[in-house]
Amino acid sequence: MSVYLPRDKTGKPKTRVYQYDFRIKPKGAKESQRFFGSTGQATIRAAERVGTRLKELAKLGQLSHAMTVGEACQKYWDQRMKHTRSAKDQATNLEVISTYLGADTLVIDITPEMIADAAAPRLGHVNSTDALARSS
User: Fold this and answer.
1) Is 37 within 8 Å of 105 (Cβ atoms)?
2) What is the DSSP annotation of 66-115?
3) Cβ atoms 115, 96 nearer than 8 A
4) Which positions ≥6 away from 104 have C-beta within 8 Å?
5) CA 5 to each of CA 34, 85, 98: distance values in angstroms, whole numbers, following the listed order
6) 44-66: per-residue pLDDT in tens?
7) How many C-beta atoms lie closer than 10 Å to residue 24's C-beta?
8) DSSP 8-class letter at 7
9) Which one-letter DSSP state was computed for residue 133?
10) pLDDT in tens, 78-114
11) Is 62 helix (H, G, I), strand (E, B) or coil?
12) Are the C-beta atoms of 50 and 20 separated by less than 8 Å?
């Protein structure tokens, strides 16, 4: 199994968080599958421990594929928001999240920078609305 820091073309690390990448044939599967993503760890030893645990789960068939933003939004809608009083507002919020982050983006690949970039236009809109309300 490989645990590594993703690097740019110059060789500098893109992030301080280690990634994992391995292929394994899960229990009950007909062929091997690739598993990859963030360990969420900033030290190599911690990342290796997480990677080892993920590999064990994959062998047992308990590690499912990585979820996309679109899948996560749909699951949240179905399980939590569909029948609430604020369903219409929540549907709009989930559409905005899906649009800004990209429905096909893997949840595990979302970075704090992506969140900040997605929130910036909305914050500008909210702040300008608040300023208008205060000046009235």
Assistant:
1) no
2) PPBHHHHHHHHIIIIITTSTTHHHHHHHHHHHHHHH-TTSBGGG--HHHH
3) no
4) 68, 69, 70
5) 18, 44, 27
6) 999 999 999 989 888 888 776 66
7) 17
8) B
9) H
10) 888 888 898 889 999 899 888 888 888 877 778 888 8
11) coil
12) yes
Percent helix, percent strand, percent coil in the chain, to nearest 5: 50, 15, 35
Domain regions of the chain by residue span: 2-59, 69-135
- Residue bearing tokens 């990342």: 47
| Whether the Cβ atoms of residue 37 and residue 66 lie closer than 8 Å to each other | yes
Report the candidate in 101, 102, 106, 99 with the shortest Cα–Cα distance to residue 117: 101
Chain-centroid distance of CA 42 in Å reads 17
- Residue written as tokens 């969420």? 40
